[in-house]
Every structure is written in C-alpha cells, then in structure tokens.
C-alpha cells in the first residue's frame, strides 16, 4: 500500500513540473516512463505479497491438517496409480507420526506393533443351530459347512474324520426319567464306555447315579447349570458361570473334573465355543440323533430301531436321550447289531 502512494506522488510531481514550464518534452516523457515502471514494479510487489500470503496460508493449512492432507494433494497430482500405492501403504504399515522424521533424513523410527489376543467377546455370536443330512449305507452325514467350520477351528467334536467303523456313544441327562440305572446295567454288561452330559439339577437330584457313572468308567460331561441356549447369554461372565458353577460343584462333590461340554439344544456360536475352550472344555455335538427326547413319543420300537441302525457311519457321535423308554429297551440290541456290522464302541477320551 505504501508503494502505491509513492507512485501517486511521483505522478503529481511530474504534472507539477510540466505546469511550471520545464524545458523540453524529453525529460517529461522520461519521468512519465519512470512512473509507469514504478507503478508496474509496485503491482508486481503487491502480487508477490498476496501470493506469499496465500502460500503461507496453504502451508499453515497443511500443517493443521497433517500428513493426510499431503497424501491427498499428492494423489490429486499423481492420479489413480498414486491412490492405489498410498492405499497399499496404509494397509501394510501402521501410521507414523511425522514428528519422528529428522530433517535431511528419510529414515523413520519403526513403530512398535503390539499383538493382542482375540477375546471371545469380539467373535461372532450368531447362533448356529446344529443339524445335518442323514445318509444310509455307512455313509457320513452331510454337515453345513459354516457351522462345522467353527467347531473345527476350536477343537469341537461332532464326527470323527476317520473311516474306521467306530462309534462314540453319548447320552444327555437333563432330568431323570427312571431309565439311567438300567442303561448303566446294559453298558456294564456289554462292556461299553459312554459319555453322560448332565445339568446341575440332575447332579443335585441324582448324586448316586452320577457317582456310579464315574466309578464304572464313564465320562461325565457338562450340559450347563440351567440348560439355556448359550448364545442367548451375551454377558461373558454370566455364561462362564453357567459352565463353571456346575464344573466346580462336580469337582467338589465327586472329585471329578469335566472337560467336555454339550451346548443345550445344539445351539452355539463362535463366541461360545471359544469361551468354552478357554475354560478347558471341548464342545461336543453329534452326527446321529432322532426325536427320542419327547417322552410323549415312546413305544415306537421299530421307528427307533430304524433311526438308530439305518444311519450308522464311521466316526459316529451317537446322541441318545436317557429319558427315552425306547432307548432303554433297545440299547443292548443296538450295541450287538452295530458290532455285528463291524463297529466298535470307543470313549471320547
């Protein structure tokens, strides 16, 4: 602004000189040319000042916005290829504070990356309802891939991958219906070891049967305290209590430590399987079962016999409910017929 005023004064001075009758036109033209030059220089200086102010504003803005703004400007100049390269850098390397970069030195201090173990709470809690497609002629069932994959990832058990004709016999014990004692008699007679999954009410109401299971070499498994759908308990601590309260009770009262867990209703999630494994439990489903849990659907011996024997397969995890009158009546026959077909009954252990 000062240089503009100076130019105006010089122009007035030239006019005053002309009015005063200065001799010759040449000096006047020279002064006028000088004024034009100065005016031109003043304009250039003003433009430079404005330009410098704009540059300073841009630089300040960039400093405030940080490294992300610089990357964006670079991408706009270099095009789509630069965007792709920048994206790869973001994925492959952690962001770095540019304050750690020394002047005249492109070397950046390598950031420390801390690996944090995955928590069960961060895993999917989508409910998996266990099921499969039965097949006859000693063929294994067809399992639903995503559900089976979760069990495979966390040491779950549902069907042995072997092609040997072996069967893992398991029973669910939600409550006692008067048949467990004779079931134990048959298993003892046939020299077969089974796994019994029990709930807290069953253990408290039937301590003698639980004691007998243990003494006769059977496995006692955890079927939770209250038989809930495990994914429905979204609080990890509450879910742990469903498992560990029963675990601790059995250990304290029977000096027995359980290591197998069967999720009630066959419902589980990646989160619950991982949580159980963290507590020392392998989740056990099955590869053969039928609607024997319904006590109103009994006295169907032919139906029950066909549902059990027609679908035998290598590595089978057989689920029977001990509340079934038909299972109690057919158990000895099922064991004998399976053995006649070349099958062997083995323990989960």
Keywords for this structure?
single chain; 12 helices; disordered N terminus; alpha/beta; 11 strands; 349 residues; TIM Barrel; five-stranded parallel β-sheet; two-stranded antiparallel ribbon
Written account of the structure:
By secondary structure, the protein is α/β, with parallel strands linked by helices. It folds into two domains: 2-94, no CATH class; 135-346, TIM Barrel. It is built from twelve helices and eleven strands. The protein has helices at 2-19, 26-65, 67-78, 80-92, 145-153, 180-190, 200-205, 207-215, 236-254, 270-278, 301-309, 325-340; strands at residues 128-129, 132-133, 142-143, 166-173, 195-198, 219-222, 260-261, 267-268, 282-283, 316-321, 344-346. The strands form four sheets. Strands 4, 5, 6, 10 and 11 form a five-stranded parallel beta sheet that branches. A two-stranded antiparallel ribbon has the order 1-8. It has a two-stranded antiparallel sheet with strand order 2-3. Strand 2 (132-133) and strand 3 (142-143) form a beta hairpin. The model is unreliable at 1-9, 12-38 and 40-117 (pLDDT under 50).
CATH architecture annotation name of the largest domain = Alpha-Beta Barrel
Mean pLDDT: 78
Radius of gyration: 42 Å
- Show unreliable segments: 1-9, 12-38, 40-117
At the fold tier of CATH, the topology name of the largest domain is: TIM Barrel
Secondary-structure content class = alpha/beta
Strand count, sense and barrel status of the largest sheet are:
5 strands, parallel
CATH class of the largest domain: Alpha Beta
Form type: globular
| Number of structurally distinct domains | 2
Order of helices and strands: HHHHEEEHEHEHHEHEEHEHEHE
* Helix content range: 40-55%
Number of helices: 12
The share of residues in extended strands comes to 5-15%
User: CATH homologous superfamily of the largest domain?
Assistant: Glycoside hydrolase/deacetylase
Count of distinct strands: 11
Tell me the distance between the termini. Answer: 94 Å
